């Protein structure tokens, strides 16, 4: 009887780890399959993709889909605009939001609750699209590069996350620095800012992804200025033109006589556009992953 009990207890960890491993493998497959399928479509001949049967490996390899994406010279300038707005928005957004969060985290600041409430209200109430448009126009930001930067410079959600993290830091560090004669900005820059690296990396990733993927603000505020067009907006226009071209019977007839055009379909163009716009974030994320995991546990441990 004792032998059976011991063998049962020895068997339980093996069964658990086996089932856990199988479950995690299923999760990994379900998570990676859409990306691998999209990549396979982007490298596969468009006409061959229409036949089906392309899953995670292309049947007929081609770079024609990517050539169709980069054939326009405006793509490169649009990529420069997207990179510029992403870098500037991330740097300024993280720095200014952290400064404001540090101020609102100080218990001796008498207006901290009122200002925090004003920011929280913006998370629940929005004036709407039309008042927003007229506000941007009256501020002179329309058809300006700064329309990508200034409106979303400080986010209420990011502010609350950083403020919560700063409150979890030991107050003795700030008190000892003040005793040594350090001012608020010196304390912020030399003590608080370096200690906030996990949460700042998390917020930086949020801001960078949001800014990189944004195209609707270009459509609303800078669509008439080609030199301000972002990469995502150009990709959206390219996808729309490709779909309209392939839906036109006359254009389709011409495509049959052109090998280059025949190899490109809306599905293959969409897959190539998805890969092109996703790759920069995929390259950046591994460097921020360890900070991102720590940042997800903000406020779980407090002094």
Automatic annotation (TrEMBL):
Instruction: Just give the chief location class.
Output: membrane
The alphabetized UniProt keywords are:
Cell membrane, Membrane, Transmembrane, Transmembrane helix, Transport
Regarding the membrane, this protein is recorded as:
Multi-pass membrane protein
Q: Which domain of life is it from?
A: Bacteria
Matches recorded under PROSITE patterns: ABC_TM1
Cellular component GO terms held in the UniProt record: plasma membrane
Q: Which family does it belong to?
A: Belongs to the binding-protein-dependent transport system permease family.
Name the record gives this protein? Sugar ABC transporter permease
Tell me the organism. Paenibacillus rhizosphaerae
- Upper lineage: Bacteria, Bacillati, Bacillota, Bacilli, Bacillales
């Amino acid at each position: 009887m004792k032998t059976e009990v011991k063998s049962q207890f020895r068997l339980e960890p093996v069964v658990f780890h086996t089932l856990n491993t199988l479950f995690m493998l299923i999760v990994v497959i379900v998570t990676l399959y859409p990306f691998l399928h999209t990549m396979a479509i982007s490298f596969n001949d468009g006409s061959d993709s229409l036949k089906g049967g392309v899953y995670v490996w292309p049947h007929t390899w081609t770079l024609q889909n990517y050539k169709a994406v980069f054939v326009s010279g405006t793509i490169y300038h649009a990529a420069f605009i997207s990179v510029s707005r992403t870098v500037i928005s991330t740097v300024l957004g993280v720095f200014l939001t952290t400064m404001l969060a540090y101020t609102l985290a100080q218990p001796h600041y008498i207006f901290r609750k009122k200002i925090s409430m004003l920011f929280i209200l913006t998370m629940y109430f929005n004036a709407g699209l039309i008042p927003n448009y007229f506000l941007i126009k009256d501020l002179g930001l329309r058809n300006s590069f700064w329309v990508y930067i200034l409106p979303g410079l400080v986010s209420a959600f990011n502010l609350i996350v950083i403020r919560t993290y700063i409150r979890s830091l030991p107050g003795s560090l700030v008190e000892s620095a003040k005793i040594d004669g350090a001012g608020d900005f010196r304390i912020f820059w030399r003590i608080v800012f370096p200690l906030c690296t996990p949460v700042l990396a998390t917020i930086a990733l949020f801001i960078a992804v949001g800014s990189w993927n944004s195209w609707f603000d270009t459509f609303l505020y800078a669509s008439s200025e080609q030199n301000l067009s972002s990469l995502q907006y150009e990709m959206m226009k390219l996808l729309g033109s490709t779909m309209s071209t392939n839906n036109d019977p006359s254009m389709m007839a011409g495509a049959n006589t052109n090998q280059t055009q025949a190899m490109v379909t809306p599905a293959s163009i969409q897959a190539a556009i998805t890969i092109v716009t996703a790759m920069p974030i995929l390259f950046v994320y591994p460097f921020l992953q360890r900070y991102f995991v720590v940042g997800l546990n903000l406020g779980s441990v407090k002094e």
